[in-house]
From TrEMBL, chains A, B:
One of its GO terms (molecular function) is S-methyl-5-thioribose kinase activity. This is Methylthioribose kinase. Belongs to the methylthioribose kinase family. ATP binds at N44, K61, E115, D116, L117, D250, P251, E252. PANTHER family: METHYLTHIORIBOSE KINASE (PTHR34273:SF2). The keyword ATP-binding applies. Pathway: Amino-acid biosynthesis; L-methionine biosynthesis via salvage pathway; S-methyl-5-thio-alpha-D-ribose 1-phosphate from S-methyl-5'-thioadenosine (hydrolase route): step 2/2. It comes from Jeotgalibacillus terrae. Catalyzes the phosphorylation of methylthioribose into methylthioribose-1-phosphate. The lineage of its organism: Bacteria, Bacillati, Bacillota, Bacilli, Bacillales. Residues 35-278 form the Aminoglycoside phosphotransferase domain. Its EC number is 2.7.1.100. Homodimer. The gene is mtnK. Substrate binds at D233, R348.
Amino acid sequence: MTNVRENIYEPFTEQSVLVYLEQKGLITDRREVTCQEVGDGNLNYVFIVKDLQTDKSLVVKQALPYAKVVGESWPLSLDRARIERQALQEAAKRVPELVPQVFDYDDDYAVTVMEDLSDHVILRKGLLDGNIYPNIAADIGTYLAENLFHASDEALGPVEKKKLARQFVNPDLCDITEKLVFTDPYYNAESNSYPDNLQESVESLWHDDRLIFEVAKLKKQFLTEGETLLHGDLHTGSVFVTETSTKVIDPEFAFYGPAGFDIGAFIANLTLNYIAQQERADDSRRHEISAYLLETIEQTWAVFEERYRTLLLEKGFDDRQRTEQYADYVIHKIWQDTLGFAGCKTIRRIIGLAHVEDIDGIENAAGRLQAQQRAIETGRSLIFNRSVWRSPKSLTAYLKGLEK
Amino acid sequence: MTNVRENIYEPFTEQSVLVYLEQKGLITDRREVTCQEVGDGNLNYVFIVKDLQTDKSLVVKQALPYAKVVGESWPLSLDRARIERQALQEAAKRVPELVPQVFDYDDDYAVTVMEDLSDHVILRKGLLDGNIYPNIAADIGTYLAENLFHASDEALGPVEKKKLARQFVNPDLCDITEKLVFTDPYYNAESNSYPDNLQESVESLWHDDRLIFEVAKLKKQFLTEGETLLHGDLHTGSVFVTETSTKVIDPEFAFYGPAGFDIGAFIANLTLNYIAQQERADDSRRHEISAYLLETIEQTWAVFEERYRTLLLEKGFDDRQRTEQYADYVIHKIWQDTLGFAGCKTIRRIIGLAHVEDIDGIENAAGRLQAQQRAIETGRSLIFNRSVWRSPKSLTAYLKGLEK
């Protein structure tokens, strides 16, 4: 593990980043480029640097030593820049077409220089604009299967897996997830954030001891089950898309955890979009959009499952892992975990800190409240039914029942 | 993590270790001490150094860069000396009376200088001599509860736990366990070792697909569930005893794994001793010894369970963990895992590399074969019944049925 030398690190400005890039030989003349900081500044700076003569561009992402996610600043290890960069490099070994290319990095400055994806849009935004991306299920299903398999004990064998896992111990960022996903939404925590008219629904959740116990079990799994290298924050805001291209970005929450966590995060965010679309979509397009989202949930899992099974049966590290019985067992565990984590991820976006625009942006107040309540109930159902729903059809049938 | 600087390291001799101790100020005059190497030389040197004038003594344990456990030598990281020493130091924070005191260490030489326990005997040997140690259950139950709890997420919180876990990534030694406990006994592996007349029993095990699948699940748990800091090799050869003192030694296999693994290892070795005693003990004492061993199995778990529950309810990191319902859940999982791992640990000592003197030392050939077959069957029962047997009474009732 490389640790940032704090005495070298300093946050760049739009000027100083160009001096740095020139010194590194990544641009030839800083007077011939434009530079713009486009990050939201909560956790990182993101500079887009464009060569005026060649029209080529690149992105410089620099971690900041704090997060502005709880009103005041929350100190965060700069080492997460290394983790994010190494996670991108791991993914590039399996699915180079599905992640931004890393051109250079510097752990002392907590900096990664990578491909500029300004021609892409964030999937969440694209979905909210009513767009349909036909490749998403196949691309994300493939991304999940390739990455979740190839970092596991079953792919690497236990020795190499432990050596890789040691590089992805990520206490600070896991702590954010542990608090915001598994802890705070389930009691009257200061970090929570929800409208007054949701108070009754929220309190009923806080008194649901059966639910809270199930969430405690899922939290224990998140804390202890180091199955594989996760992206760690795979919502629809971590996916860049065009009509023909999908890129998974921002794996700074990467760590060794339960495989179902990433799939659950993605499915939860499609679910939230589906629930929101019942209020947002034009009447003329609601049915089409709803059908697309349900199809995407089903197909993401189907592509994941088929690819994962094939990889395990073909490349499983030991004989006993290359059997249909073992593959069924592992995949069924991942499926149950996917549902449980999807439930937690759905609920946190309504009650906890950091909401999603899908729901919060519903203009009609009654519709918004309806969507919020439905999201909470859907989360609850995902958690309770995780050992009952045998396939994505169960989830999509449930969601179909919410269609306007 | 400190890594040994290989250019400094060299294996000590009975002479050079004294020069080293003198330089370190741990002895005053090397001409006034005796020094004897007493290790079995398979993995480590163990020097006992005694001051002739004060009669005080100490032990110098030095890791060797290989293990002679598979006929030829198996390269092993010297970093395990640091892991063993830090595991002893962690245990000393909770139960200083149950571990040897560490006086000094030097990671460059892979050396730990510690309390000499020559007045103790190895528990396995003591039990084979027909001795009864009334404190063992309380001491080991306490050792297990205090250590397994205090290194867990529930005690440390997720951030501190991850920081501690990072220090105990132990690929080389875990690999030995993975191979010898979970893999090799279940197929015709070169490392296996069993007498010809056991061939039929062993082959029936290799064809027991249901058993092999259960073992694959337990192996997956061993590989992925980083619940707490384990001793990692807690058999009766890792416990030093006198009438009144218990010391747990040799935690070089320490790593973050499932809590039930340590308890299972200890119970498996009591079980093997129990099975062996049916053939070994004098008729006049067999009943007494059998009753003592069953009582020790039951009480070890009872002491562990009560202490662990109390610690969790009093010190659990978050509110949701300090509930009877969560405690029941966690303890029940540990219990199931204990049985499963005990089963694997029992079988490997009959079929795999590295047997136990308890069984191998039975002089009567028919009795030895009987004990070997019973041990295999008991292991199988432990694995299959791990979600059925609700308390140690189920196991001891089963064992009682094997009494002569």
